Structure formats: C-alpha cells, structure tokens
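Appendix C. Worked example: Isoleucine--tRNA ligase
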Amino acid sequence: MPKTDFEMRGNLSKKDDKFILFWEKNLNFNNNDSKNNNKFILHDGPPYANGDLHLGHSVNKVLKDIVIRHNLLLGKDVEWKLGWDTHGLPIEIAVLKKGFLKKDQQNDKLFLSVYYKFALDQVKRQQDQFRKFALYTDFKEKYLTLNKFYEVKELEIFFDMFNKGFVYRDFKPVYWSWSSNTALAEAEVEYKKIKEEAIYVPFKLKNEDLYFVIWTTTPWSLTANVAIAFNKKIEYVISEFKNKKIVIAKNLIGLLSKKWEQELKVIKNIDLNKYLNQELINPLNNNKSILIIGDHVTTDDGTGLVHTAGGHGLDDYLIVKKNNLPIIVVINQIGKMINSGKYDDLFYQKANKEIIADLIKNNNLIAKEIIEHSIPIDWRTKEPLIYRATKQWFVSIHKIKKELINELNNVGWYPDWGKNRLSKMIENREDWCISRQRIWGVPIPIIYDQNGNVIKSLKLQQNILNLFKKEGKIGWYKKDLKDILPKEIKYHQNMKKETDILDVWFDSGSSHNFVLGNNQADLYLEGNDQYRGWFNSSLITSFIKNGRAPYKNIFTHGFVVDNNNNKMSKSLNNGISPIDIVDKNGIDILRLWIVENDYFSNLKYSHEILNQVTIDYRKIRNTIRFLLGNLNDFEKNYIVKEKELSFISKMIFDELKKSQLKINQNNQNYNYYFKVKEIINQLNTGAISYYLDYVKDIVYIEGKDSKKRTESQYILKQIFDYIIYNFASIIPVTIEEAYQSFWNDDNISIFKTKYPNFILTPIIDTDDKTWSEFNLIKSEVNKEIEKLRLNKIISRSQEAKINLWLPNNLKRFNKKELKDWLMVGEIEIKIDLKLKISAEKFIEGIKCARCWKLFNKKEISFDICKNCKKIIDDNY
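Step 2, the predicted output written as structure tokens:
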C-alpha cells in the first residue's frame, strides 16, 4: 500500500524559511564556471528603495526567479544580481516627512549622509521582504546606485557620451515640476485627464482694424507671447464676430460658429503671407507680437492661428529661435509669475483667473469654453507640469534615432508588440534632459572656467573619476575645485562646479556598465511601463558607449488589478501586501497565482481568485503525494527500454512527451501561464488523470516485483519527473520537499540536477492518433456510465457492461485491452460504420474479494479471480 512522509497538507508558511535557509547554505548562487560557455544572464532592473513591497514587486521578482531556475535546470550558469535605485526625489521627500531633516537642511550638502543612511535602511527593509519570495540569488551580491564604484561606472558613460558630442547644455523649454522644484525627463511624466477653461483671444493688427484670433488653455502664457504663427498650407478667411473683423482658418468656420453661438460667414479669403512679420498687439498688456510662419500649426483644434511663447513650449521655442525673437520666461521654479507686470508673484493657476477676468473687463475675450484633455503631471507628486525654459543638460537623441530603432531588430520581444512600442517611443521622443535641480543624486561632473565655459580635458575627467573612486559624490562637494584640476589647467577663483545632478533614469540606465561590463544580458524583464523608462535609457547609454543594446531579449508583464480592473494601490484602499499573503499561505501559493495569470496583460487579484489557486495547488500536492506513496518501494534508478513497454504504458508515456513538447515551446516564449494550464489540465482531465486512476489496481494488487507493477511504477516515475521538473521553477518549496522525500535525503536539492532527457528532448514513437482515438472511446463510455450512476443503476464503472460498435479505424483496440483500460466489468465489441456505445449493468458479474473487480462466474474461484489467485500463489 502507498507509504510516504510527504504530508497531505502543505503547511507552506511553516516550511518556507526552512528551505530558503537550506538553499542559502547549500546552493552556490554564483557558481559560475568560467569554462562553461552556456551562460544565462538576467539583468535586474533596480526597484526604487522607498517603502514596503507591493504585489507588483512580487510579480516581477518571481517571474525573474522562474526564468533563472528554469535556465539552471537546463544546465546553464545563471547570473542574477539584485539591484536598487537609491537616489532621487522620493527619498528626499521621505527624509523630510519623517523628520530626519528640517526644511532648511534639505538641500544642504552637509546632510547627504542622512539620505545615504535612509536609502540603505530602505534597501535592507525591502531585501528582507524579497527574501521571503524564495529567490535564487545571493542577497550579499547586490548593486546600489549610491555605491561609489557604481557612480564611477555611471560617470564613465557620461564622459564617453560627452566626448563623442552627444551631451550638450542649452537654454530651452523642458518639463518643469514646480512641486518638485526640478526639470523632468519624459520618462518621469504621466498624464491625467482634467477639465479646464480654454479661451479665444483677438490680437489686433497694429495699423488695421483686423483681429487674429488665437486659442489657448494657458492664459498665463499670454504674458510671454512674442508671436502668432500660421501655416502656409492652411486657407484663412476674414469673418465677423461682434462687430470685429477676425481672421481664422476657413475649415473651422462651422465648428467655431457652434462654439461661439453665432453664425460666422466668410467675408473673403486672406493671404497671410502678405502680413508676414507684421506687428500685432497683445490685448492683455499691449506688448508687440509678430506674425510668423509655423509648420507645426494645424486645425485639429483652436482657430488655425497659434499663440507663441518661446519660453513655455518646445515648438514655440524652435520657431521663436528661428525668427530671432526674444524668449521670455514668466514662471519661476515654484510656479509663481515673474516678468509679467501686475501678475507677478501670483501662482500661475490663480493668474489664469485674473487674466481671464481682465480680458473680459476690457472686452478682449472672444469666447471661453470648458474642455477635457490630458495634461502632463509629475509622476511622483501627481501635480501638473509646465513647460519652462531653463539651462539644462541634454543627451542628443535625434543624431541616432534611426540607429536606435534599427538596433531593436536584433532584440527578441515577449510579447512581440514590445518592439513597436519602444520604436514609437524613441521615434517621438525629444532630446533627453538629464539634469536635475536636486541634491540627492550623482553630480554632473562638469567644471566651468572663469568665463562660464565648460572645461574639456581628458585629464580632468580622469581626476574626477579617481576622486569618485576614493570618496564618491561626497568628495565632489568636499574637495576644493583647485585640487581637482590637473597641472595643465590654471586655477581661477571664478571657476565653478556644476551644481545639478543626473537624472535617476541616467543612474539606472547606466547599470549595464557596472553589472554587465562588455557583456549583453540575455534578458531584461520588467513591467510594461519600462518601455518609456529603463529599457529606453539603457538602450541609449549602451548604444552610444558600446554600439549595441545591452539586452538580447525583453520580456514585460502587466500590472496587478482588482476584479474591477482598478490598479491596486494603498491610496485606493485595495492594495494587498505580498508579505501578508506569503505569511498566511506560503510563497508557493503566491508564485502559483502569478503564473496562473496571463501576466503579459494585467494580473487580477482577489481573495476568490487566490482560493481557486489554492485548490489547484492542493491538486498538484495530492498528485505528488499519491505518486510518492506508490513509488516508495520502487528501485530509484530502474530503467525500462521503451520498446519493451506495454501498449498502454507506451501510449501514456508518449502523451507525457506530447505535453512536454507544448511546455517546452511555451518555456522558450516565457509563456509559463500556458505551461501551468497544460499541466493542470493533464492532472484534472488528461492522460495523467486517467492513468493515476487506472494504475491503482496494478500497484495495489499486483505482486511487488511483478513486471506489470514495476513497469507501472516506471511510468509513475516519469509522471513524477514531469510534474516536479516542470513545477520546480514555479513552486520550488513544494518541489524541493517532494524531491528530498523521493530520495529520502534532506541534504540534496533538485536545483543541483538537470532536466531529464525526456523533458529536454521528448521523442514520440507511437501514432499521434492513438491516445486521441482511445480518449474518444473513453469519453463516450464514461458518458454512458455516468447515466447509469445518475439513475442509481450502478455505483462504479466495474459494475458496467459496455456494448461497443467500432469503425474500422478503431479496430486496433481489442476486447481484453479495452476492458482493462476502460475499467469496466465486461465489454462486447462489434464492427460498424461509426462509433456507437451503450451501457448496462453487468448483472452476471461476481466481485473478486481481493481486487473488487467483477468477473464471469467461471473466472472466480474461492471468491477471488484467477489473476489474484496467481498473485497470491507467486508471492505468499
């Protein structure tokens, strides 16, 4: 009878620590054989070191661990070093909120050590939580962006880009966060739909009673206006509105008539080229505005004429610069108005209201409307952003856009739409603003001479790198400038160090230089928000430095949502801690939930969903327990030549291999969701489910050393291997427990072995139709048996007699085989044109007292069947 110490109940939460400690003690996570060319490198994108982990963290790290363990079992040397992003504004804000620094100390370089300690504490906190996820990695071997040696590798990239002419400084509009008091890059920008007022404002031609009407959603920017732009390809007309002759685009007449609630009629067409460079009057402040040409002007909204303020829009900036017009900035770093007369010192949103009121008061407003549109917001503070011209450092993207996009052809994409998504983002992105007006980050390593020009010197760059190697960023602030200069450069008291720091995306985007060196990672695996973030910045830095992407493949997953498809977060009161799930259910339940989701899209979580996962886990565990119980007396290394297997054994083994072929294909495409689905189906309704039911009579009844029982145990061992090796990377705690139980040795690990041959290269010998044809018969027979059960005619299949009409293509199955395989009392077979089945009670059947099967009277002797009598005679 079955015998095993593998418990029916998992009690996983009590076992997790035991196996995590066992792996940390017995597995060498960095056992990389330099002679082994079969390596797999997964480069870890650094999560931000601030706060407790959420479910998204668990999804990301568990998927990475599954990939790593799978490649380990393939016999590869695996490399996976965890990393943390440890600079940036969130840490500055957290330090302030928690009272570690006062407001007036926040930007004082003397207190950098406070940020440093806080970041390290956050890393330790998250590391302890990550450890609960049972990850195959050495937590002692991690990388942090605040590490001075990491900073050196980051600055090497900066200098390389600078020396190649990709880094430059310019005064132009960038996304500016008044709430964070810094410039932002596109990767730090989110979008939010809002409703706000838009206004239509007439600019009068200086020497003529003609008004050029513009439309804007930023009334405050009228104080920075220097021009009105038109497009030569658009047809313009003169119309009349409330006794004013106005100029607008002809194809907008109908739409504006509805919006302004007055029918507008075309008086005549107007050629605006004749008015080029003529002076208009800004109705808000009577300042001069010039009529210019702008190819960016469209009739998608507005009037076909565009109000132009070069200090507060990139298109505006380019056209203003082209026309040698002044660039005026009217908002300061904290969002208050400057250079705007009576509106100075007002917060820009309050200035909007006063400007609209003044325009109405002076009869200078054509109309206003409420519109709904998307605005850029700060990804951290969620407050609106403005375009604001400031001096910033940039990486030139336009120089290499085509090359970057072409390089994506050399990358594998999972899912495949990722390539198009990243291509579009690169195609549409502007030059990368890499400077930040903050304190906690890597300083931009630039020194200006006494005239404000950048000092370009390779020796100076090397001195700076040496300084960072010794002291890190602290040294940059503490060391006197004159002590950094090489002998060839004479010190001047008006020389200055750059005070800005590098964008945190430049930090993380340089990680390949520290972790990979000159190698390419086999895989980058992150959430699908990283197309605009880490994948993007890493591609740019690596391509400029090394001429290629830092990754061979990209695999992305979605976000965690609730049953209503709402993103899960603490702010929405629907956030769930993965640590709470692990502490209650064990890590294997959480890991199984992740792969039972189609994670290429968003992952749904609820208590009901987790309960279903638990049911699936019990099925897996109970199946393993059944297998271990019936393999307890099996000769562990027993091998049967496949050609010597019985037909049923060969058929089941080949079904395992067919299933494994599907699994292997899904493994190659990182489709672990379909892999798990395939195995669960096998356990519930497939060949495994059938065979485990069928084989009970053999392993319980046949003689211990009989060929039939030993062969059946051999097939059970293949099923056991199929389950434990395919689930090893997914539910490692359970599988390690099962593996040690099978070998009765608590000191061994499945993760020191490789996939068996039939897992790696399944070869199928039998006709592909064998199982499907038998399964067709079995399915139809089971339907008839179920009818008898429901009508309470029989209680089990052995009490049924089956009448079977087989067509010629199913004649391969004989009566004796089918009776045995279908587990029925009796069967009669006839030949017909198509498959037909009927079932009845096996009335004349007599039950064997030993095996409980039903037989004809002549097959029973002394209450037992002939087969049981032979087994008893041979073994007792």
